[in-house]
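Hi P.,

Sorry for the delay on this. The queue was packed all week, but I finally got your sequence through. Input first:
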Amino acid sequence: MIWNDRLRKLRERSRYTLKEIAAKLGVSEAMVSRHESSTKNIPYDIIEEYARIYGCTPSYIMGWDSTGSSANDCYCTNPKAPYFTKESPESSAVRIPVLGRVAAGIPINAVEETIDWEEIPAEMAGSDEYFGLRIKGDSMSPRIMDGDTVIVRRQDDADTGDIVIAIVNGNDGVCKKLRKTDSGIMLISLNPAYDPMVFDHSDIDTIPVSIIGRVVELRGKM
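Then the structure:
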């Protein structure tokens, strides 16, 4: 799993010991070691704590975002981590709408679709268009649960392995893991109880199927 390697590298770069991380998390050293080597899912609240300690985003640790945690890109305020040299971002933030649903032809900024608001860094908001989406159902559990909010960057394409928001046949957007194949694409639920949605190239054009964004961060419900 991608988070195992990233957790280990983040700890090594920040110059923390297993004992120090365990003390910060309130768990045993053995548990931290398992997080860095096991293939089992880690509870999202623990992922958030790791992100706070290392000064990166939960989405980076979980493998949803390839930026935000390298030596040049990670905003880290940890005094033990001189490896990370970029200054912390300004505290200014921009509010983005959290939508209850998205569908073909509905503008992202449609007021009637806004059910809440989330804040993202102003620097982040200035580079691309973002919106939040409230997740319904358990098809992406245990990583993304019913009632969670995902932060989505507006884009019409993504890479294999990305978590995307896609619209199928003009209906409400679905949150799925994308896999590209020679014959088309697959939209895959993380919950094995749900079968993958498989579309060939002709399906993509005729149904139609379109990607409207890539999930860059998960903000779990309180």
